[in-house]
Amino acid sequence: MTNTGIALVTGATAGLGQAVAKALAEYGTHVLVHGRDADRAAAVADRIEKAGGTAEIYLADLASLAQTRELADRVRADHGRLRLLVNNAGIGAGRPPYRRRRLSEDGHELRFAVNYLAPVLLARRLTPALRDGAPARIVNVGSVGQAPVDLDDLRMDAHYTGAQAYYRSKFALAAFTFDLAEELADTGVTVNCLHPATFMNTHMVREAMMPPMSTVGTGAKAVLNLAVGPAGGAATGRYFDGGKEARAHEGTYDPAIRARLRAVTAELLAPFLGDGAGSAVR
């Protein structure tokens, strides 16, 4: 196997993240296995190592921005160069009728915090390690389900549903992908977003009581296309549906919408940036 550098995969203890972590290890990547549960993370790392790969465990709850910052800082302290960040961890719509609203440790709507704010914070704080490891890649695992964010009601105090919260978080993640790709142009770091596969056989899909239509293997193949395949090295600031380039929600391309989202995000993340972090959120 050829060593392809170091990759951090969030949410690597189950489902798509686990499949991606194991596949990356088979490519010779040293995988940083992120999760919340020590036993589950250890089981994934053990399987990788028994198959001839290498892995390390990093525990953090991405519902906490402080823990997210600490995760990024531990990775940077342990590994000066990073070749790949796969922002995979996420929370789905939940169980129908999707009306149970939960807030994160920092008081943000939980899906917005985990599916959007945490990936943004990780990418920002790991930018120096990615630039030092260039050519490097960021792959944001999004969804075909996207809906504009109401910036005047980020906590969704009115008219909450888990499905709408999920769609908004994935809209924001796609918009951030396009912004960060522009910012990192000519640095050797590519940034792309994808909908890996529709209704994979994962806990997220089963919890939503949706019949699975595809496997995690199919989704992992699409992620690997951007993580180590030719597409992720040549393209940046793109959205993919499976293995094919597609269009995200049209609002994610709107400069005014993205500017407002950037400003709000900068305010929310300001306490967790600085102190050697990557470029500031603009």
UniProtKB/TrEMBL annotation:
Keyword match Transcription: no
InterPro entries: NAD(P)-bd_dom_sf (IPR036291), SDR_fam (IPR002347)
Source species, domain of life: Bacteria
Residue ranges crossing the lipid bilayer per the database entry: none
Keywords assigned: Oxidoreductase
Pfam families on file: adh_short
Family: Belongs to the short-chain dehydrogenases/reductases (SDR) family.
Name of protein: SDR family oxidoreductase
Native source organism of the sequence: Actinoallomurus liliacearum
Lineage: Bacteria, Bacillati, Actinomycetota, Actinomycetes, Streptosporangiales
